[in-house]
Amino acid sequence: MFRSRFNKYRKLTIFILVFQLLVSSFFFSKVFGESAYGVFSSHVLEVEFQNKTGLQDMNEYFNYVDRQMQDLGAKWTRLNLIFQWSLVEPIIGGGYDWDSPSGGTDTLINAIYKPGNDIDLLAVIHPWRKDGMNALTNPIEYARFVNDLAERFDGDGLEDIDSGAKVDYFQLVNEIDQISNRDDPFTLAQYVHVANLTLSSLRASNPDAKLVLVAQISANEVIEEMESILQIAKNAGIDFHAVDLHWWGDDSQWQAPVVADMRSFLGSLGLDNVEIWSTENGTYSGCPNQTIEQSEADQARSLIKRAVYGRAKGLDRYFWNKLIDFYQFKGFNDSVYNTMGLISDGEGSCDDSVVGQRRQAYYSYQKLIQYTDLDTAILMGEIQLCQSVGPCDAYGFEWINKLDGSSMYILWKEGDAEIVELDLSGSRIANIIPLVSENLNGSQGIQVRVPDYGILQLKIDTNPILVIANPSTITQN
Description:
8-stranded parallel β-barrel; alpha/beta; disordered C terminus; TIM Barrel; 6-stranded antiparallel β-sheet
């Protein structure tokens, strides 16, 4: 049997924290974009899905996506092809095409920032051109291009897009292999040089602009190339905002050591304020490309564990990959990326979901966002559920609700189910809400009484649950 460990000093810390939260919530309103959760490529058109669902045009498609994002509660998205220099400016000095059929920059940004939406965008900039020129060969022209795009989307009312959208977050290059695996590669030092040029050009028009560095692909550790980029950027004094980690894999790869490793490496450079994002993160449903079959529940469990464990280890933003299934990703009709979506397109192998169906992961993510996002709760960290010395496969994490100061816990156990003891002293009841279930939509869970001595015994298994401590009396259903 496992039991959580608490002490009087920690409880005093929580009391002080809750008081500060209540005071700050009285004086300050929510900051736009202050959310930990997002969805990669939410508004990019999936033509096959549009045709199957009978959505008549782009407006209907965007309205559909907006409803899904609003119901989900996700407040971030990322577009990795939105600012391709060659598409926006086909001929250098020949003017901009902000809405080319192959790019659709204005269309997508207008859709994301449409009135009524509460979504912020991370937009990726590509510093190479199809004509062989790039930010190194043509730095003046590149700086002008970046400055102009920042001006168009800075929301100041001057030379802006019609919607007045304000885009503050930009990323230079999608993934790290794209720096070197090309005909006109950059060295790592050259990439950092271009990052410095990009950020200064962005801030010349938009002082609020923030830069996220190129993403690395690894769930295990910070790779050598990423370490070099960070060291060079630190030495150059570049004020970058965040680093990005992409990882996928099967449902077991939720416990990514790279997050803690990145947090430690940033700390060793004195970059403790740099955020860690994971803007492409996911696992599949079904059995694409002859992989081991995973159920919707497997996918949903992995989503919760990736987000919760990752945030406890230092992850600041988490984007699921993606809202609607990719259709034949990069031309492959059985890619593992084809069935990662929270909403099915009905094309997956070993996947019984039908087009337009919300997978279990959708509702799991919805619950996680509802109770643990930055505007709702503050993460206190991992709690110790194991009393014995050695490996522990029971996991517990605590949040404090910003509205009423109540404690919330997410718990699960790898392997066989186990009874744990949770110290809920001061609470009379607890709400227990499953985070993975076929019937999660609208579920409010169950209420149980907390014994007078304050210790609640719970049997936990591989399906994460949310426990909300509540000092009020039990309600009648």
